[in-house]
Amino acid sequence: MTAHSPVTTRCREISDADLGSIAELLSNGFPNRSRAYWLGVLDRLKKHSAPADMPKYGYLVERAGAPVGALLLISTMMPDGSASTTRCNPSSWFLEPRFRTYAPMLSSQAIRKKNVTYYNLTPAVHTLPILEAQGYSQFSNGQFVASIFPSVRRGAQPACVIERQVDPDAQFEPFERDLLSTHSEWGCISIWCVSSGRAYPFVFLPRVVKRVIPCVQLLYCRQIEDFVRFATQIGSYLS
To answer: Which residues make Cβ contacts (< 8 Å) with residue 99, sequence separation at least 6?
Structure first.
């Protein structure tokens, strides 16, 4: 580089060659997560089958050939009746402090596709006004805790619970079988509730609250009414 060469800043997709430097960048931006943790995250994205028209990992802001900001994207294709829709969750957004004026460029690049539904499932409280300005609409007020006592509820819907390794002898969507299998490989609890010739998928993430209280977090079901309907059987299985 000569003395007169301009120092360029640009936004582009993250590539395989960037993974080490992106892990280093994110470990600096999120001090409670190590570089090894972020390498694991990026490895999962590498193995994840993102839609062909979506980035494999997300986008970075690059200054003089080195990443100074990043935004990861988790994208998937979801069947929707006879068609399919692309859903994307932007995650782990960080820019080095002196480059934060490039945040609008990074975010607009990441959520620019009109045929994609974007979710932000884990927003920090201080980012909510920013997300609203970007066009997001709030769909929930957060999380709640539910205690399930299997022996209390009467008149429960007849159903049986089977683990995801077994294909239920009932109607289900093929993509749901793949969803359960993938999340099981990532350490989640994946089950079917079978009732009246139909199989209902559920995915739970094991957690420990306050470092001592074991519980599970519901990650996926078709609709929350399904969880209420089969709460007795799910509670018995998880207890």
So the answer is: 9, 61, 63, 68, 69
Nearest partner of 84 among 75, 93, 92, judged by Cα: 75
Instruction: Please enumerate in sequence order all residues whose Cβ is within 8 A of that of 191, keeping only pairs 6 or more positions apart, or say none.
Output: 161, 162, 163, 164, 180, 201, 202, 204, 234, 237
Q: Set out the domains of the chain in order of their start, with CATH numbers.
A: 9-133 (3.40.630.30), 160-238 (no CATH)
pTM exceeds 0.90? no
Q: Alpha-carbon torsion 171, 189, 187, 14, what sign?
A: positive
pLDDT in tens, 47-74: 998 999 999 999 999 999 999 999 999 9
Q: How many angstroms separate the Cα of 90 from the Cα of each of 132, 231, 237?
A: 14, 31, 33
202-236 pLDDT per residue, tens: 999 999 888 888 899 999 999 999 999 999 899 88
20-28: long-range contacts, CB 8 A cutoff, minimum separation 24? 21/66, 21/67, 22/57, 22/60, 22/67, 22/70, 25/67, 25/68, 25/69, 25/70, 25/94, 25/96, 26/70, 26/92, 26/94, 28/96
Rounded CA gap, 168 and 193, in Å? 9
- Confirm if 150 and 187 have CB atoms less than 8 A apart: no
Q: Name residue 84's beta-bridge partners.
A: 79
